[in-house]
Design goal:
Blueprint lengths: L9 H33 L2 H37 L3 H28 L1 H7 L7 H13 L1 H16 L4 H24 L3 H27 L14 H33 L3 H17 L1 H19 L3 H35 L5 H14 L2 H17 L3 H26 L5 H4 L1 H22 L1 H9 L3
């Protein structure tokens, strides 16, 4: 399943690798939206709010796990590019060992803290018990969520972006079927959505492990590779930790915005929760391009082909910006009907449409810093992404959202402007770092090459 991403047409390689990534993100987004959509058809606003709040917390945990796993994708990619298969197998083994330990600890801690978490979210009283049931079941499934994302990160590191797409397709199909069973037939509301999600993740992990055992990955994994090695884990964490912290910080800002909306009432809470899911659809291309540039550039850097890595960045930037402009423009005309797919409540539809119209422009600006961040990840500079996102959150996203929530009580449009404002700050910082890298290319690339 290993694929060499360091030769051939750069444009064709980007397309070949990114399309399965895009489909994977689409299926994963559909997977997450199924709960909200089906609950919205069979339950009331309180059930919708419970699932939207609970799924947002789970999304935060998932993106942090994915961010941490980025360290594995980058390090495996560099090893493959350098043709160091022994080091690649050691990285894969240590990744599996480390992440399973993290998953078990997370599950135990979060199960003990579920009620305080729901309280901190300022969850409306009508949705408290539903949110607690949803999170409790989902927290039990954390080992499955972790296992799926680690397996996917390993496959992408070796250049295979198709297999993770198949794995998530299985999970998506299972989740939709189980949601209709637990929510529509059995009437379990939020708890049914959580059961469907958790069982579907377990099914996906079983399928992916079966594929690995029967077909292999192209890299021979020895028992000794599973033994923790400090140097290997340190390299994985050096890239992964800043990404995980950055993604976690971003999700905390989203949660803060959710809290501001929750304090305004049930309709505002439901509207913001629904739009956050819709934004997941709009961000499919930017997210897939971030992961694509990380994987492709990593292999090329490992092979010493830095010019090819830079050309890959140019292509993904052009694709992402072009897509963002088209998507944000279309949203201006279909925002209310789009929100209406998830709720029959007219007030929630109007509020959600307001929030979505302004938020959608972040698809353009966030897309730019997503691509640049992915390029920095490949060079081991994930700390840059953490810094620029932290600054944008502290200086724009949270304060502007709070100001809008308290000074514009009748509309959510101003709250949606906070996201693109924060992304503009990120772009300025990223461009500055990119200029610095170009001016110090020989020195920086030489130091980086010795680390591979």
């Amino acid at each position: 399943m290993e694929r060499d991403l360091t030769t051939g047409s750069v444009f064709k390689t980007v397309i070949y690798f990114s399309l399965p990534y895009l489909l994977s993100y689409f299926l994963q987004t559909l997977y997450g939206m199924a709960d909200l959509f089906i609950v919205g058809q069979f339950g009331g606003v309180s059930s919708t709010t419970a699932v939207s709040i609970g799924s947002q917390i789970m999304h935060m945990l998932t993106v942090m796990i994915v961010g941490l796993a980025m360290g594995a994708t980058v390090m495996i990619g560099r090893c493959i590019g350098a043709k160091d298969y022994k080091k690649a197998s050691e990285t894969i083994g240590n990744t599996a060992t480390m992440f399973m330990g993290i998953a078990i600890i997370l599950m135990i801690v979060l199960l003990a803290a579920v009620r305080p978490i729901v309280s901190v979210m300022s969850t409306p009283a009508e949705a408290v018990e539903g949110t607690i049931r949803y999170l409790t079941i989902c927290f039990i499934g954390i080992p499955f969520i972790t296992a799926y994302n680690i397996i996917s990160a390993i496959f992408r590191g070796i250049g295979d972006s198709k297999s993770p797409m198949y794995f998530i397709a299985v999970a998506c199909a299972a989740n939709i079927g189980l949601d209709y069973l637990f929510i529509g037939v059995m009437g379990l509301d939020a708890a049914g959505a959580a059961l469907g999600t958790t069982i579907a993740q377990a099914v996906s992990v079983i399928v992916s492990l079966t594929v690995v055992i029967k077909k292999g990955t192209g890299i021979k994994l020895r028992k000794s590779d599973l033994r923790p090695k400090r140097h290997t884990m340190k390299k994985i964490l050096k890239v992964g930790v800043p990404v995980a912290l950055q993604d976690g910080f971003i999700q905390i800002s989203f949660i803060a915005i959710t809290i501001f909306a929750n304090q305004r009432g049930l309709n505002d809470a439901a509207a913001v929760g629904i739009v956050e899911k819709i934004i997941g659809i709009l961000f499919l291309v930017p997210s897939s391009m971030l992961s694509t540039i990380s994987a492709l550039a990593s292999q090329n850097i490992g092979a010493g082909k830095h010019d090819r890595a830079r050309l890959t960045l140019r292509y993904v930037l052009c694709m992402t910006v072009g897509y963002g402009l088209v998507a944000a423009t279309i949203v201006q005309f279909v925002s209310v009907p789009f929100v209406g797919l998830f709720t029959n409540d007219g007030a929630v539809q109007i509020l959600g449409g307001q929030y979505l119209r302004s938020y959608a422009w972040d698809c353009v600006f966030a897309g730019v810093h997503f691509c640049l961040s992915g390029y920095f990840y490949a060079y081991g500079l994930s700390i840059v992404s953490f810094i620029h996102n932290s600054i944008s959150i502290i200086c724009a996203r949270i304060p502007l959202s709070y100001y809008a929530a308290t000074h514009f009580p009748d509309t959510l449009f101003p709250m949606g402007c906070a996201a693109p404002a924060g992304s503009i700050i990120s772009i300025i910082i990223c461009v500055g770092v990119l200029i610095w890298m170009n001016r110090h290319s020989e020195k920086y690339m030489g130091n980086n090459k010795s680390e591979v």
